[in-house]
Write a structure and sequence with these properties.
Helix content of chain A: under 10%
CATH architecture of the largest domain in chain B: Sandwich
Oligomer: heterodimer
Strand content of chain A: over 45%
CATH topology of the largest domain in chain B: Immunoglobulin-like
Shape of chain A: elongated
Structural class of chain B: alpha+beta
Strand order of the largest sheet of chain A: 4-5-2-7-8
Largest interface: A-B, 71 and 68 residues
Distance between the termini of chain B: 76 Å
Distance between the termini of chain A: 77 Å
Strand content of chain B: 35-45%
Structural class of chain A: mainly beta
Largest sheet of chain A: 5 strands, antiparallel
Shape of chain B: elongated
Number of strands of chain B: 9
Number of strands of chain A: 29
Number of helices of chain A: 2
Radius of gyration of chain A: 34 Å
Number of domains of chain B: 2
Radius of gyration of chain B: 24 Å
Amino acid sequence: MKFKTICIFLCFALLWGMFTVTAYAQTSQSPLTMADAIPVAGEALTVDVPISVDFTDALGVNLNIRLHLALVDKAVLVNPAECLGNTMYTANQTGDKFKVAIATGDPISHSGVLFYLRLTLKQQAAETDELCKLLQVKINDVITWQASDRVLIAGVTDGAVYRDSVTVVFNEGTATLNGVSFASGDTVTAEGTYTLSVRDSGAKVRTVTFTIDRTVISVDVSFEEMSFVYDQGVWNDETHQYENGSWQALNGGGNLTVTNGSNVPVAVVFAYEANEGFETIDVRFIKDQAAVNEEELAIGEVLTVAVQPIGVPETSFSQAALGNIVITIIKKTETVGYHE
Amino acid sequence: MNNQKKLTVAIVLLSILLLLVILVTVLALFLRKPTVLPPDYPPQDTDSNMQPIPGDSGGTIETPEGGGAVNITYADTVTVSLSDRTASLYYANPSRSNQNVAIAVMIGSTVILRSDLITPGNMVTTLPLVEGVEEQLLPGGYQAELIIYCYHPETGEKAMIDTRGTLTLTVVESKVTQ
């Protein structure tokens, strides 16, 4: 008997424990995994690209760096005194050529990053990891390193949603946008989802998909004073309870108005969350003497509801916050023009 | 093995299991991240990403005596870049509002983005991800919720009306410009 009792107790305890563990597992954040981040260099429209070169016992080094002018506006050396020390050098840009000439009195050797080149971009590069591929480096006319032959696309990022027009630039090849011929530098303005395919001379194809969505939700919410007083009604000698209690809004307040200024119809959902200690009190939202929880508003439509507490307070109180009204705005699908 | 020994072994095994469960329960209770509650009084600082709304037409929303008025303007799409740990969004608090606002974006019960105060006449188009949340996101689409808390501009007291909106949140790996 004792054995059975102990086992039953332990089994119940284990079951309770397993439920607790299961509940924790469902609310923990472990199911999502980490995505690798791509380091970002530079500021809004500039990026510092490290130029790495190796040379041994050189008295003079000439670097010719080719810039992709479709994407890069200009290039300058960053803190050249720090990069090149006391070495004699000149640096200048002519068209798509950026030349750095280094001369020394004694033979010098170097390995790794020689200096950083700050590129000012014509528009934000879509993919930061590609910025280092914008260059071609020659030392004494010998190509030591050059951009990948992958098509470079700027202006749009795969999977992104834009609220404004986008100008798309690519460095080579021919392109189609949703199957229609598309030129580098063209601007996409209409709302929709687009697939851009760029094919280079080597028949390599790169595809990105993006969306332009100008939907803007804009609602005005105005509310009157939300102060209420509870009249507990009349005492019933037989039941020994107050009856016919009611709530009254103070100072003629208690109304809530929502105006849809969006460029789409919206649904407005009303809810109420009671504060701790006031769970016996709920709120109804009254329109035309009927309770409403959700209303759809056309563009420009105005909705006014009266906030009406219901229920009996558990204890007497004064000047207490009973709870929060929560208004949820849900977009409906019809889109009509752009409205700000 | 006699019955007494069986009883002892069973009790020991079950007790060990029970202790393990209690240990996990205690760890679960103490290591769980606390639920985020909106403060009754807002952060004192305005959001560092706040900027004036271009072409803000001004005007006022008719504000009843003792009440408040706020305009809520936002785009229902948010793009999160994992590479720079920021989100590109659009939320505006036009000058015709008479409330300061703070916003949060949540996926389920996880807070993804949170702003400081946005005063009337200003907007945010970029917000940093909440610390560490990038570890929980993968490229793709999420249904998210925008939560807007309103605060009285003088007293800082939180309004009793919260507003929420539904969002589509797209996570991409690369930097996004809007």
